[in-house]
């Protein structure tokens, strides 16, 4: 094994040694092409790729922000519409209440007038009736006075006396008062 | 004879790779232990974890390199 | 190991052959030769363009599948930069995104069988690592002047300890690019070499089923490692950048 390795080392002496990484003959070539590669990648990235991706990301951010703003706007509009609807509803309710109140008041007024009128009529009728009753009563008293005078006159006549008209009237009047 | 000694030396140098493995395991294990205690703080420390692993591993790579040099370049 | 000498032993492992740099059209490998490195780096560029440019060409407000992936990657790295470095680190986001996308695509392309893993080469990752290191250091001095040095002067430590800590901090600062680049290359190289070794075991008929299941398991692990290494490289870059922007402890 040792001979083999030594032989290998001797064989490889002219050719590259065991590790190609350590052969300085290749360094210049690798370094040159590496620097070319890095420069190409750097220019591609800094001129084309990175600005483009940054623009895409910024645009997306802008789109998202705009969409969110639009959504907020629509939400605010919806809320405003809801508030307007609520207000209209409240107004209508108030109007209805007002109309109902007015109607009630008008009906009440009519009713009051009618009741008053009815009361007045009733009162007039009652007064009339009372008057009629008073007349009837007065008529009745006169009739009673007449009957009492006649009766007293007749009684006195039956007694055989001569009835004094004036005394009988005074007596009847006196009794009627009492 | 010289080549044999070089091979023995390469084998000895390769032990360093195992030592680096212990170091990497230590870093990762301690990170996991800490992350399980406080998972919310773990996400921010993954960069530190990788840096720690890289530093621990670098020394193992050095010993591996010494082994390679002994095998192929001496 | 990488020749016929061992083939007599029955098993032949060639885990390092996959990392060989070859000229695609023959000839010696000079600085500008088109090699398999060039090919796979170019494919990584195409993958990045396909992932981030072609998928977003319609600019849909509601993203489709491809565009979601592009946006996810953008958001992932953007959030990482913002979280780690703060608001003033955002202007370095394209550089960090470049690093992340390159490493991610190169790692994943390297997992295609018979492909070449560019990020497994130390020359490649060292350019990335030292590039980050130099850029961050220069940036730190430009932004903060001499007060950038307070990064090494731990003012919360007791006074007698501070010089010692300063030395340690300086050393660890200069080790950063080394570990940064070797971590990536080492992970990629190790994973692919292990895959090759397991595949080598499949030469023996008795253990071939086990070896194939092992290859599948390691392959799954490698997919995870590819993504995690890209993430780790990127987040460490962010951490270094944060140190340069805010050096005070």
From TrEMBL, chain B:
InterPro entries: ATP_synth_F0_csu, ATP_synth_F0_csu_sf, ATPase_proteolipid_c-like_dom, F/V-ATP_Csub_sf. Its main location: membrane. It is a multi-pass membrane protein. It is found in: Cell membrane; Membrane. GO terms for cellular component: plasma membrane; proton-transporting ATP synthase complex; proton-transporting two-sector ATPase complex, proton-transporting domain. Pfam families: ATP-synt_C. Key component of the F(0) channel; it plays a direct role in translocation across the membrane. A homomeric c-ring of between 10-14 subunits forms the central stalk rotor element with the F(1) delta and epsilon subunits. Belongs to the ATPase C chain family. This is ATP synthase subunit c. The gene is atpE.
């Amino acid at each position: 094994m040792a001979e083999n390795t030594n032989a290998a080392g001797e064989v490889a002496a002219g050719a590259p040694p065991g590790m190609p990484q350590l052969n300085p003959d290749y360094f210049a070539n690798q370094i040159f092409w590496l620097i070319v590669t890095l420069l190409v990648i750097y220019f591609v990235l800094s001129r084309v790729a990175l600005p483009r991706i940054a623009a895409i990301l910024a645009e997306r951010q802008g789109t998202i922000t705009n969409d969110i703003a639009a959504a907020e706007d629509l939400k605010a509009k919806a809320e405003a519409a809801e508030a307007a609807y609520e207000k209209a509803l409240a107004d209508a309710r108030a109007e209805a209440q007002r109309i109902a109140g007015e109607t009630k008041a008008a009906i009440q007024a009519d009713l009051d007038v009618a009741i008053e009128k009815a009361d007045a009529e009733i009162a007039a009728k009652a007064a009339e009736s009372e008057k009629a009753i008073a007349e009837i009563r007065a008529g009745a008293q006169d009739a009673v006075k007449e009957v009492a005078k006649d009766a007293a006159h007749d009684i006195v006549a039956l007694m055989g006396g001569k009835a004094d008209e004036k005394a009988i009237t005074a007596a009847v009047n006196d009794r009627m008062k009492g | 004879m010289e080549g044999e000694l070089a091979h023995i030396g390469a084998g000895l140098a390769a032990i360093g790779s195992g030592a680096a493995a212990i170091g990497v395991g230590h870093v990762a294990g301690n990170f996991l232990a800490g992350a399980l205690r406080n998972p919310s703080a773990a996400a921010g420390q993954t960069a530190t974890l990788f840096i720690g692993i890289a530093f621990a591993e670098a020394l193992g790579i050095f010993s591996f390199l010494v082994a390679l040099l002994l095998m192929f370049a001496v | 190991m990488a020749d016929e000498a061992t083939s007599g032993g029955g098993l032949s492992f060639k885990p390092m052959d996959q990392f060989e740099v070859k000229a695609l059209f023959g000839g010696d490998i000079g600085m500008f030769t088109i090699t398999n490195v060039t090919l796979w780096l170019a494919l990584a560029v195409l993958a990045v363009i396909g992932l981030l440019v072609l998928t977003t060409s319609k600019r849909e407000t509601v993203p489709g599948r491809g565009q979601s992936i592009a946006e996810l990657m953008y958001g992932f790295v953007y959030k990482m930069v913002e979280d780690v470095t703060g608001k003033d680190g955002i202007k370095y986001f394209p550089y960090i995104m470049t690093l992340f996308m390159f490493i991610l695509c190169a790692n994943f392309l390297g997992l295609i069988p018979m492909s070449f893993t560019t990020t497994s080469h130390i020359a490649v990752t060292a350019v990335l690592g030292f590039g980050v290191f130099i850029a961050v250091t220069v940036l730190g001095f430009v932004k903060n002047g001499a007060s950038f040095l307070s990064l090494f002067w731990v003012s919360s430590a007791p006074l007698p300890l501070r010089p010692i800590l300063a030395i340690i901090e300086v050393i660890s600062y200069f080790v950063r690019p080394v570990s940064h680049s070797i971590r990536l290359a080492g992970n990629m190289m190790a994973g692919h070499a292990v895959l090759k070794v397991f595949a080598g075991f499949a030469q023996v008929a008795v253990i071939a089923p086990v070896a194939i299941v092992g290859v599948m398991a390691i392959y799954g692990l490698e997919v995870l490692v590819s993504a995690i290494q890209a993430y780790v490289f990127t987040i460490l870059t962010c951490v270094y950048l944060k140190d340069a922007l805010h050096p005070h402890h």
